[in-house]
Automatic annotation (TrEMBL), chain A:
HAMAP family: Malonate_deCO2ase_dsu. One of its GO terms (molecular function) is structural constituent of ribosome. It comes from Cytobacillus firmus (Bacillus firmus). It comes from the Bacteria. This is Malonate decarboxylase acyl carrier protein. Its main location: cytoplasm. Covalently binds the prosthetic group of malonate decarboxylase. One of its GO terms (biological process) is translation. The modification O-(phosphoribosyl dephospho-coenzyme A)serine is found at S25. Keywords: Cytoplasm, Phosphoprotein.
UniProtKB/TrEMBL annotation, chain B:
PROSITE patterns: COA_CT_NTER. InterPro entries: AcCoA_carboxyl_beta, ClpP/crotonase-like_dom_sf, COA_CT_N, Malonate_beta, Malonate_gamma. Pfam families: Carboxyl_trans, MdcE. It comes from Cytobacillus firmus (Bacillus firmus). One of its GO terms (biological process) is carbohydrate metabolic process. This is Malonate decarboxylase beta subunit. Residues 1-100 form the CoA carboxyltransferase N-terminal domain.
Length: 103, 563
């Protein structure tokens, strides 16, 4: 298992907590909590080691488009970059609409 | 008629399943993902934890009736029960028990999607499953405990025993219910016993439709949310079930007695025989065993003879021993499971806990409850535990070994609640489903400090296969996580033992050894009489409080705060 930390500058606010996904085969779990610290703090725990650069690229792309100020925890069980991006967007939708999403 | 589109229940995740069963807007999750209650035991083993540890606890209403829904997320670690997830379930049931006891009706609904004990936390899972079972048995008197097996994984291992304890079981065709998963049977008994790739055979043996037809589940639900809600509502309206499946000892013994074990047993045959048991009652298991074998067959057997001091064995099958005797002024019923090379169930000949063992133990314990019904002083019940494993076999699964285990666990728990001091004395092996059935429902556990005394969940070979690790990796992990180790001293650190007794001759005990155990049992009886009849002593012991069960205690505390 590997633990990775990232930080991205943020200008937008998140309205509420968001939780999506599950730590199951090919999937991941994302927890987003709003913060007013002015950056997104991301902690990734992944069972698939050696993909630091790919994580960085995927996250960088997402947070450059959605510069939200939040604490984000990602618990990964071998999700592909596509699934990671999808789940991030989903979490964002939940966090912005303060609702819940079917999962 | 217009055929409306169906909404699949099976396809929903664990959280969504809980939500869709509730009346709209009433769902309130307790100990949700943002509470930071993940398993503390996974990260040290290099496994990524999940924020809710794979269990969702939610309160709300169903058709206006207060309910607590427990839903297991099968996609995380196969729905395996670890310390945190187990404590969430047990804690929620214990809270529901308190509510119902004080007159506030709240219906527990338990959605199973689990392989059983989470092998990476092993004995924590075992202890939690016993605590869950204890709560189910205590709750059933007040409200129906409704079990739901939607499918994907199903209900296996120790959790199939808990499913067998439920008042009502709802299952889909896709759902599966069995003690041992197909891969484990194949590993333990060989591919000729069960081919884990033969999907048709698997579903014909342990699939939902077969289970309903053969008397192991009540309602077959369509995979549609409305169908589940309807089935659950009907179970709620039925009220508490007076004689739950796991207490129907006569009927299942008659059913078992009607099985010809020298012929091929098909799923259809089992359905037919089950349908017939309604009408006649076999006396096969009624009379005491006439040709008592005196030859000592195991360590447990030797201890049983020593403790019961030659009292008459009144059991009808050679693999189960039952004697009434005295320790000082206390009357005690001793029970043991021993090998029997001539057993008609070949997979249970070496002391394994199988079908006959489960139902016979249940019978003997329930007989004692019945006989002492009007007595103030209930006799003590001592389970002598030396059980190498549960029985792994095709026939065992087809005939519902999980239900036999549930029957034994239910009987011990019922005796405990009725005021019998129940003690498990462990001079040998206490393994997995066998220990859950024969021992773990006791008020107090007393073990010998000896190398031959082991507590664990699955043989190393099978555990390695299921968790996709090597045996070396498992042994390495056991060094970091005491709950994964097999020795009794590691088990002691979890706080469930009442006493660990050193310096006795475990293999060839004599009278002095016997007297030490007698004293210990007498002390335990006294202790039981001054304390609650539940399993809470396991969480209040020094070992438990000093770290052995930290997470279990914390989860319960937080749950009570949020309830």
């Amino acid at each position: 298992m590997e633990k990775l930390n990232f930080r991205f500058p943020a200008t937008q606010m998140l309205e509420s907590n968001a939780h999506v996904g599950v730590v199951g085969s090919g999937d991941l779990e994302i927890l987003m909590e709003p913060s007013d610290q002015g950056y997104a703090d991301v902690t990734v725990r992944t069972g698939t080691t050696g993909f630091n650069q790919i994580w960085e690229k995927v996250l960088e792309r997402f947070f450059s488009q959605h510069a939200i100020s939040a604490n984000i925890k990602i618990n990964d069980f071998g999700a592909t970059p596509g699934v990671v991006s999808l789940r991030l967007s989903q979490a964002l939708e939940v966090g912005k609409n303060a609702g819940y999403i079917k999962k | 008629m217009l055929d409306t589109l169906k909404n699949s229940f099976v396809e929903c995740g664990g959280r969504e399943r809980a939500r869709v069963l509730m009346d709209e807007g009433t769902f309130r999750e307790l100990l949700g993902p943002f509470e930071g209650l993940e398993s503390p035991h996974l990260e040290p083993q290099g496994i990524v934890p999940q924020s809710d540890d794979g269990v969702v606890i939610a309160k709300g209403t169903i058709e206006g009736r207060p309910a607590v829904v427990i839903s297991i997320e099968g996609s995380f670690q196969g729905g395996g029960i670890g310390e945190v997830s187990g404590a969430k379930i047990a804690g929620a049931l214990e809270m529901a028990l308190d509510e119902n006891k004080s007159g506030h009706t709240i219906i527990p609904i338990f959605i199973f999607d689990t392989g059983g004990v989470r092998l990476q936390e092993a004995n924590y899972g075992l202890l939690s499953i016993a605590e869950i079972g204890a709560a189910i048995v205590a709750l059933r008197k007040y409200v129906p405990v409704i079990g739901v097996i939607p499918g994907k994984i199903g209900a296996f291992g120790g959790m199939s025993i808990n499913a067998g304890l439920c008042s009502t079981l709802i299952i889909t065709r896709e759902g599966r219910l069995g003690l041992n998963g197909p891969e484990v049977i194949e590993q333990e008994a060989g591919i000729q016993e069960f081919d884990s790739t033969d999907r048709k055979r698997i579903w014909n043996t342990i699939g939902g439709r077969q289970r309903v037809a053969a008397g192991f589940a009540d309602i077959e639900a369509e995979d549609d949310i409305a169908s589940f809600r309807k089935a659950i509502l009907s179970a709620i309206l039925q009220g508490p079930v007076e004689k739950p499946r796991s207490s129907q000892v006569e009927r299942y013994l008659a059913f078992l007695g009607s099985i010809n074990t020298s012929a091929v047993l098909t799923p259809q045959k089992v359905q037919d025989l089950w349908a017939e048991t309604d009408y006649y009652y076999s006396e096969e298991y009624d009379s005491a065993n006439k040709n008592n074998v005196v030859k000592i067959k195991s360590r447990g057997h030797r201890w049983f003879n020593l403790l019961s001091a030659g009292s008459k064995n009144i059991s009808a099958v050679p693999s189960v021993l039952c004697s009434d005797s005295n320790i000082g002024s206390e009357s005690v019923r001793f029970l043991a499971v021993v090998p029997d090379q001539s057993s008609r169930f070949p997979r249970a000949r070496s002391g394994e806990f199988g079908l006959e063992q489960g139902w016979m133990i249940a019978k003997h314990v329930r007989d004692a409850i019945e006989e002492d019904k009007y007595k103030e002083d209930k006799r003590a019940i001592v389970a002598v535990v030396d059980v190498p494993s549960q029985a792994y076999g095709y026939r065992e699964e087809l005939l519902g070994i999980h239900q036999a285990c549930a029957a034994a666990a239910d009987a011990y728990a019922t005796a405990r609640l009725a005021g019998h001091p129940v003690i498990a004395f462990i001079p040998g092996k206490a393994i997995s489903g066998a220990f859950l059935s024969h021992g773990l429902q006791a008020n107090r556990l007393i073990a010998l400090d000896d190398e031959g005394v082991n507590v664990h969940v699955m043989s190393k070979k099978s555990a390695a296969r299921i968790t996709q690790r090597t045996i070396e990796e498992l042994e390495e992990a056991a060094k970091k996580v005491p709950s994964m180790a097999y020795d009794i001293r590691s088990f002691e650190k979890l706080g469930a033992l009442h006493e660990l007794i050193s310096d006795l001759n475990a293999d060839a005990p004599g009278e002095t050894d016997r007297d030490v155990i007698f004293n210990s049992i007498q002390a335990a009886i006294k202790d039981i009489q001054n304390n609650p009849s539940d399993l809470s002593s396991r969480l209040s012991s020094d070992f438990a409080k000093e770290g052995g069960r930290s997470a279990s205690i914390l989860v319960r505390k937080m749950l009570a705060d949020q309830w």
